[in-house]
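Sat 14:20. Reprocessing the chain from the morning session after the first attempt stalled halfway. Input below, unchanged.
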Amino acid sequence: CSVAEQHEKLTERYLQLAKEHEPTVIVSQSWNEIHKVNEAVREALKRETLVDDKETVVAAFQPVDMTDAQKRDTRSYDENTVLVFNRDARGFKAGDSARLHSLTDTHLVVENENRVVPIAFKYLNKVTVCQQREMALAAGDRLQLKANGRSMENKKLANGELVTVKSLAPDGRIALADGRTLDKNFRQFVRGYAVTSYASQGKSVNHVLFCDSAAKGATNNQQWYVTISRGKKGIQIFTMDKEQLRENITRSGNRPLALDVVPREKDSRIVAVRRIQGFLRERAMKHAAQTQRVSNSLGVGR
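Finished this time. Tokens:
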């Protein structure tokens, strides 16, 4: 089937489970695909009035993976870049945001409404670089939080957590269905209907819908294991190429371990290396067995 047909079937299944009030997550393999699936699912939910049609547009901050070296490079920034402090630094509180003013040889100079402040490069780990995106939100929307923090009730907010919007206040606060409230300054979130396999770790739901891109190298057995282990009641796979998916999930996601090339200097070290390698082989075999059981019982690509 085509990508459009794949996404249509995926959306229909998600909508069916949503109507049955079954906790469900879609797992995909690239952010480009995730954005497309999120928007398609949301539009379907709106048509069925599962997401309110009264929307409020907010500025959402999506974190960008950057090394400290990239943070020191002006080419890493554009007009949509927002710097969010993940810890207190130079008078900024965790959660405060600022814009890049300039870069020197030793400092990142940031500015907000009130001041211009130099941040020494040694504190770059306290700054998260984000891209600002306008996002329409309404009651019923699902979000994935992209930063740790505290709610206005002083309850924990966890990076990667999936939450549902209950209402939006005129002053920017976002009330969640679980009783917590996001402060108007907490804007590190993305839509949460579809997530990456990495982001799905630690999240157990009743159903997992796996959207396979069929790209060679997009999936490996470790990612597959994470995906299939999330669904309490089941997993359904949506793929355009069943054979390519089978090939991908038999491929190891392990990078060569430094332990594999450690000089054999001491017997105790050799024993430790062999124990770790044995553990990894055993785990890989268990993953492969579970993969085969899932494939046999569900029928990959059906």
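Residues 1-55+154-302 form a domain with the Rossmann fold fold (CATH 3.40.50).
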